[in-house]
Design a protein that fits this description.
Structural class: mainly alpha
Shape: elongated
Largest sheet: none
Radius of gyration: 19 Å
Number of domains: 1
């Protein structure tokens, strides 16, 4: 690897250990085996490097989660069971990426002023929407794009919200079984109106 790649790997390691706000340029240099001048040369600033590192770490997390889900979610199980298996997989990976998710909250503020960051986050959200629709409901995004968008958006909103709870309020954040129980309560509340064909 060259210095650019070494810096990115080092910055991701620092994010996972120390978080966004506490990572310094010297931390990244020590973790990457490069030098301070390399940060400016390859990324322009420490902030730009850390932003790239957060995006890389989230992409890595998404790939790991998809792999865990494919192994841990039974496609033949009823949806409530698949839903709980999905959340068990999400939360099992969350501890390892906790600092990354905390850093991603900082990155949302950056997105408002850096179009490339906003575009990267938006692309990641859209990939997530399509993945959840396909993996959890078997919806083909190409055959039924509107359906995949609607269902995937709901799961993406839930994912974002639960992860924020785990970052900000971990003692009261829901477990996989809590979420599955809530889903059953909501489904029971909806059942009467569904039989009456109410909107």
């Amino acid at each position: 690897m060259g210095h650019r790649e070494d810096l990115l790997v080092g910055a991701v390691a620092c994010l996972r250990e120390k978080g966004y706000a506490r990572t310094t340029a010297r931390d990244v240099v020590a973790a990457s085996g490069t030098n301070l001048g390399s940060i400016g040369y390859h990324y322009g600033s420490l902030e730009a490097l850390l932003n790239a590192a957060v995006l890389a770490a989230i992409e890595e997390w998404g790939a790991q989660l998809t792999s865990v889900m494919l192994a841990g979610v039974d496609p033949a199980a009823p949806f409530p069971k698949r839903f709980e298996q999905y959340w068990a997989a999400v939360l099992a990976t969350f501890g390892e990426y906790r600092q990354v998710w905390a850093a991603s909250i900082d990155l949302f503020g950056v997105a408002g002023r850096v179009p490339e960051v906003q575009a990267a986050i938006a692309a990641g959200l859209q990939d997530g929407r399509m993945a959840w629709a396909q993996l959890l409901h078997g919806i083909d995004p190409e055959a039924e794009p509107a359906k995949a968008q609607a269902v995937g958006s709901l799961h993406q909103a839930l994912l974002s919200g639960v992860l924020v709870q785990w970052v900000v309020d971990p003692d009261r954040a829901p477990s996989a079984s809590d979420l599955a129980a809530a889903l059953r309560i909501i489904a029971a509340d909806m059942a009467p109106s569904m039989t009456r064909n109410e909107p």
